[in-house]
Amino acid sequence: MEWGRFKVQFFLLGSLILLNAGCMNQVGGSAYPVQVINAPPLTDSQKAFNDTLFPTLIAQCSQCHGAIQGPLFAIRNRPGPSHDTITSSELVDFNNRPNSIIVTRVRGGHNCWSPDCNEDADALLAAIALWAKRVDPDSVGTGDLTEDVLIPAEAASANVCNETTGALMRFNLRTIDNSLPDPTEFQIRIRVASETSYEICDPQIVSAGAIQVEDIKIYVNGTSVVNQSAYRTIDLTTDPVQNPFNLHAPAGPVISPGAVIIPIRSGLGVDTLGFEFQKVTQ
User: Fold this and answer.
1) CB distance 128 to 101 below 8 Å
2) Can you give the residue ranges of every domain in the chain?
3) Which residues, including other chains, have CB under 8 Å from residue 119's CB and lie 6 or more apart?
């Protein structure tokens, strides 16, 4: 009997403990409010990230980079912290989007989700371009970037900039699309115009075959020079008969861009020049 009463009492005590454990908002028979902490509203950049790049990251990267492997840039239902990790870890480079770490890693074979790693990297690149366009539509384009080329020392020796003077700089457009005719180059001449500026002149496109070009934007040290983007009126098709094709030529809808003044940042041998092409195709 004594043992039986003990068992009953223990069972009732255990039931009481379980009952109270299920009602953690009860203290002494009185209810207290449960505090709900709401996440702060998303910034404009976080909203743009949520609508563009974040869905792809969640679909393809969250299994690791959403919970168990840093950096945590693909946390489900957490676009704000994921965005902040992307930016603080410099995994995306708006000024040189193809060089973004998450793009180069996938292009190099890390966690490709289709048989073609280049296609997967291009999908990330397209999403980054849309994100960048939402954040700053004027200074960030959505086209393809050439390689950056160092401005040569000879740029300081030219008194004027025209088709025979200034330092010649060449940009291989096949780095944008290796299916373009070989060779396909964008060429300009450049000189130091003042203590604070370079002058660009004589833009030409040299191609072994016909290509179409639209809208060219200038970059200094990877940063768009928006106000001086004078080659943005171009919409032309080059033909190998016109080789090289000078953008000053009065053909079709081409508007002569003339000479362009851009700022000196650090100086010759340090500053780089690059161009963004909204469209360059055969």
Assistant:
1) no
2) 44-135, 144-281
3) none
Q: Among candidates 282, 175, 179, 187, which has minimal Cα distance to 238?
A: 282
- Least confident segment among 22-36, 69-83, 244-258: 244-258
Ordered DSSP codes for 205-222: EEESS-EEEEEEEEEETT
- Cα–Cα distance between 98 and 163 in angstroms, integer? 32
Written in H, E and C, the secondary structure of 34-63 is: CCCCCCCCCCHHHHHHHHCCHHHHHHHHHH
Separate counts of helices (H) and strands (E) for the chain: 6, 13
Find the mean pLDDT for residues 43-70: 91
Joined together, the tokens standing for residue 176 give 């944008």
Give the dihedral sign, CA 161/166/168/169. Answer: negative
Q: What is the pLDDT of residue 257?
A: 55
Instruction: Quote the radius of gyration of the chain (alpha carbons, Å).
Output: 29
Hey, is 165 helix, strand or coil?
Answer: coil
CA 63 to chain centre: 23
Give the separation between CA 242 and CA 209, rounded to whole angstroms: 10
Pairing of strands 272-281, 144-145: antiparallel
**pLDDT tens-digit map of 22-35:** 334 444 555 556 55
Q: How far apart are CA 40 and CA 81, in angstroms?
A: 11
Q: What is the DSSP string of 97-144?
A: GGG-HHHHHHHTTTT-SSS-HHHHHHHHHHHHHHHHHHH-TTT--SSE
**End-to-end distance of the chain based on CA atoms, in angstroms?**
97
Residue-level length of the chain: 282
Question: Are β-strands 223-224 and 211-220 bridged in parallel, bridged antiparallel, or unpaired?
Answer: antiparallel
**For residue 170, what are the β-bridge partners?**
187
